[in-house]
Amino acid sequence: MSRIYLFKRFERFWHWAQAALILTMMLTGFEIHGVYTLLGFETAVSTHTTTAWALIGLWAFAIFWHFTTGEWKQYIPSDKPGRIFAMAKFYAWGVFTGDPHPYKATPERKHNPMQRLTYLGIKLAVNPLIWITGLLYLFYNSWGGVLAGADLQIVAVLHTVGAFLMLAFLVAHLYLITMGETLFAQLKAMITGWEEVKE
Amino acid sequence: MAAGRSAGGHRGLGLRPGQSGPANAAALTAPEASEAKASSSTTDHSKLEALDKDFQTGPEVTKACLTCHTEAADQIHKTKHWTWEFVSPETGQRLGKRNIINNFCVAVSSNEPRCTSCHIGYGWKDGNFDFASKENVDCLVCHDTTGSYKKFPTGAGHPNYASKEWPPKSGKMRPPVDLKKVAQNVGPTSRQTCGACHFYGGGGNAVKHGDIDSSLGKPDKDLDVHMDAEGLDFACSTCHRTDAHAIQGSRYTTVAADTDGMVVPGKGNDERATCRSCHGERPMKDEKLNDHTDVVACQTCHIPAFARGGIATKMWWDWSKAGRKIDGKPVVKNGKGEVVHSMKKGQFAWAENVVPEYRWFNGEISYTELGDRVDPETGVEINSFGGSADDGKSRIWPFKVFKGIQPYDAGTDILAVPHLFGKDPDAYWKSYDWNRALSAGMQSVGYSYSGELGFIESEMSWPITHMVASKDDAIACDGCHAREGRLKDVAGIYMPGRDSLKPVDLAGWALVSLVLAGILIHGVVRVFSAIKRS
Ligand code: HEM
Fold it and tell me: Which member of A18, B225, B298, B457 lies 3.0 to 4.6 Å from B275 by CB, making a disulfide possible if both were Cys?
């Protein structure tokens, strides 16, 4: 066994802050949506709005960090489709038969090919969907120009679609991270930065 | 302070016992130790020679008033208070108390001496009243500050000049009015003077409006932030400002969406009795709340309920049940002392703290007029309100919706005018014969009654705008932003918390469930295979 330093301090901070914010937003968002009553509508809205600004701020930082450090390259999809196939096969079969994990993380390539693809999708599709519709929602009363007279419902529904996608991702994500080298290897790595890898 | 804020000697005066509308003899509020503020008027009327007389009748007093206030009668003659008539500039309909048929006491015509105890004049006892008469303007009913001037309920607008029994056969005597004292103590109008009629609309305290009753005589802050007797102490005329005796603010031409900003002297339209004429368009600290003001009327959130002053308002009136006694009694009261059956008027239902109904409203009101065909299958809307989410001039308003059953001419399918009050045998309250009452009533408005009596369900709506709660008691977000909130039936807008697109919700939850199910299955297989391997 050896240890590699996978997640730098900023990365870990960013991950957990984002997790907390998105959880809060999901909880308050679905309350605003009328699914349940938890904080009360008013508090749900004000919390959702405050955390929205926090999240946008965090994202701005994270995007800046990714580009200045070159870490954005972590999300470039693997150019060998076979590798994704190997990952898929491992999740669908190998985990049951006790096959070794097909992917060895290195600081240069932290994410396995499936993770790369999923995270890229979140970053390019789900996040922008949520924050563009979210900002439109927030500034609904100032809509002018092409937006004047547009229906709030369209924005609200697209925002809700984004929220459902995010929720589905979160659920899958929570399970998939248990399929690292060991049950908690990936979780530990995101907490301490260090991942234990077999030689 | 706003120009309309009167500072007369009436301020601080509690309501005197027995000072109540002509229709209601009940005492309202306990007498108050009055620390009347000094009048700011430049005239002390008790020093005027013209008023130092033993007046015998109201018109004599008016003549004395007019010796100085030379234009007052002409001004009054132009107002709805005098004409009881209003021609709607939008619909051209000839409205006003004189013309309208409602579902309370139905109509004025043929019942004048009773109804006109709330007219701003003297002697309107039938269809021949002289509307050009100056001396028949009643100055005192609005300008009394003593609380002792009361029009006699059946006196066609006159107070009683000699001691007189009221209610009939009750043995209770109403003392005559001391006209000299009243005349020497005139002052600005007050909640009491306006309330003497307006609290009692519909024939009794709190009957009609729901947001106007005798509890506003001396309200606390909870009941009305502006009229709060210990606080801002607004008179009616503080908002309903007057110019040449014409009073701003009207139910016939309600300003549903005021976009003219605050009233600034010399700038724009200053003839508005709206919330925004003082508060402006974005008066709240929270900008998110201000964002609501292009959709919701102020009243919708700030008047969480009407009939909040401890006095129930009438919600239902079934005329078809009139004419009979119940267990030998002509009047039946419920446990709270509210009349629920009356031989004269039929059956009633009352309610306190009523949550209004909410609708779009753009200020356009149209009435079902005399002679309009009505359909007994659908019932009749006495008045109906224009407005929608996208006409750009509507706001969501609160309404009292008053329902009942009233007589109509089933032969011609038009609403009927009943002759209720009078000493003649045609009067319903004498003979309890609908056919005679409708014959006489319809004749008085130029219609002939077919002889076929019918009863029709009717509904009349009243925009709610008084009894403004303090801001802590305004409706909170989730009063409306909820699946089953107050605005659940208001169409045309997307409201977070109330609305969602069902297919999207279904698809969303299906996706999440599928992912969960996949995980569960995967997880179970994983655990079993791990056990097997070890
Ligand atoms: C950039 C970040 C975001 C912004 C600016 C934003 C903004 C908003 C706004 C303004 C509302 C409407 C609240 C109101 O009634 O005034 C809303 C509703 C909602 N938000 Fe967000 N939000 C963001 C992120 C998220 C996230 C991350 C989630 C969940 C994963 C989420 C889920 C929801 C949901 C479900 C609703 C209710 C939609 C409806 O029923 O109309 N939001 N959001």
Answer: B298
Q: Kind and range of the H or E element at A194? A: strand A194-197
> Ligand 1 pocket, A6 CB below 6 A?
no
Q: Which atom of ligand 1 is nearest to the CA of A167?
A: 30
Calculate mean pLDDT across residues A65-80: 88
ipTM summary value: 0.94
Q: Are the beta carbons of A171 and B515 separated by less than 8 Å? A: yes
Domains of chain B, by residue range, sit at 1-189+235-253, 313-479
Number of domains comprising chain A: 1
Q: Measure in Å the smallest separation between the Cα of A137 and chain B Cα atoms.
A: 10
Its domain, for residue A103, covers 2-197
For B265-294, the DSSP string reads TTBS-----SSHHHH-S--SS-HHHHTTTT
Residues from chain B contacting residue A49 (CB–CB below 8 Å)? 288
Give the Cα separation of B500 and A61 in Å (integer): 33
What's the pLDDT score for residue B36?
52
pLDDT of residue B438: 98
Q: Which of B303, B356, B355 is nearest to B469 (CA)?
A: B303
Residue B232 has pLDDT above 70, yes or no: yes
Q: Which residues are bridge partners to B457 per DSSP?
A: B405
Q: Distance between CA B525 and CA B516 in Å, rounded?
A: 14
Q: CA of A137: which chain B residue's CA is closest?
A: B496
* Residue B117 in tokens: 């105890």
pTM attached to this predicted model = 0.89
Pick from B288, B519, B530: CB nearest A175: B519
- Residue B144: its pLDDT value, please? 97
Do residue A34 and residue B494 have CB atoms under 8 angstroms apart? no
User: Quick one: average pLDDT of B74-87?
Assistant: 96
Q: What is the pLDDT of residues B403-454, one digit of tens each?
A: 999 999 999 999 999 999 999 999 999 999 999 999 999 999 999 999 999 9
CATH number for the domain that contains residue A87: 1.20.950.20
* Shortest CA distance from A30: residue in chain B: B497
Q: What's the pLDDT tens digit per position in B305-354?
A: 999 999 999 999 999 999 999 999 999 999 999 999 999 999 999 999 99
- Which H or E run contains A88? helix A81-89
B493 part of contact set with chain A, CB < 8 Å = yes
